[in-house]
Specification:
Blueprint (H helix, E strand, L loop, with lengths): L19 H25 L3 E8 L5 H8 L8 E5 L5 H4 L5 H4 L8 E5 L8 H4 L5 H20 L2 E9 L2 H13 L10 H7 L1 H14 L6 E5 L3 H18 L17 H8 L1
Parallel strand pairs: 1-3, 1-4, 2-3, 4-5
Helix pairs in contact: 1-10, 2-10
Length: about 260
């Protein structure tokens, strides 16, 4: 169990001294660097990367995908969004629909919301109780440990925005024709449940950070959110010290079956 994170004590804005224009220029460089690292991981075929994006409505999960991965070869990346489970998914354990979407070796998969919704939204809505949530924490930890044992790296980001910024983004969805399709009246109800979500998120951070710790990303400023995530991913991939494989001409290691039988006579 990790040290308790208190979201109210963490700023939702970029640290002082971080320049917006410089960060945007640096992000362009990071995008190209991530493109090369993904290509290297794809070629080597040893590791895979799962990026989990969690956050309240309008925290910028979609924007993070577009802003961070815009240079990555689509052949080496897939994005999955997990909404309310359908009837088939409900008939299985809560991780059933998740497991088939984890990345194979060489791939980057991004979860825009994830299995953590099954210990967050489900509790706010009263679908599961605290006892069930505790059991699911254990199952999630075992699941992520299994991924780790198969050389899957998991990076978990919580996009941390303020209530004021969320309200501003909801207003923007109503007024901007390009974003109006995103507006959902239920979002306003979710914003009223802010204290409950914050409480349950803090419990998730505490209970599910042993194998892969959560990173709290100040996300009121979109440019900093993308800069932070790109940096974290690149630092992690660099630590793997990946190398391009070299072509090796196949050598015959076994005698042809016919010759082998002749020698046995």
């Amino acid at each position: 169990m990790s040290k308790k994170i208190e979201l109210e004590k963490i700023s939702t804005r970029a640290p002082k001294g971080i320049d917006k224009d410089e960060s945007k220029l640096k992000l362009d460089e990071l995008n190209l660097e991530l493109k090369e690292l993904q290509n290297l991981m794809y070629a080597q075929g040893k590791y895979s990367l799962l990026v989990i994006l969690q956050g309240l409505d309008a925290s910028g999960k979609d924007g993070a995908v577009k802003g961070v991965f815009n240079e990555v070869n689509p052949l080496g990346m897939r994005v999955f969004s997990f909404k309310a489970p359908n009837e088939e998914e409900k008939a299985h354990d809560f991780l059933w629909r998740i497991h088939s979407k984890v990345p194979e070796k060489g791939m980057i998969h991004i979860f825009n919301r994830s299995h953590y919704e099954d210990v967050l939204a489900t509790r706010v809505l009263g679908i599961i109780d605290d006892k069930t949530a505790k059991e699911r924490f254990k199952q999630i930890n075992m699941f992520e440990k299994l991924l780790q044992s198969n050389d899957t790296i998991v990076l978990k980001f919580y996009l941390h925005i303020s209530e004021e910024e969320q309200a501003e983004r909801f207003k923007e969805r109503l007024e901007d024709p390009r974003k109006n399709w995103k507006y959902n009246p239920n979002d306003l109800k979710t914003s009223k449940d802010w204290p409950s979500y914050r409480k349950y998120y803090e419990e998730v951070f505490e209970e599910c950070s042993d194998e892969f710790p959560w990173q709290i990303v100040p996300s009121d400023q979109k440019w900093y959110k993308e800069f932070y995530i790109a940096n974290a991913i690149i630092d992690t991939l660099k630590e793997l010290k990946m190398k391009y494989p070299k072509y090796k001409e196949e050598q015959e290691t076994e005698e042809p079956e016919k010759e082998k039988k002749e020698k046995e006579k």
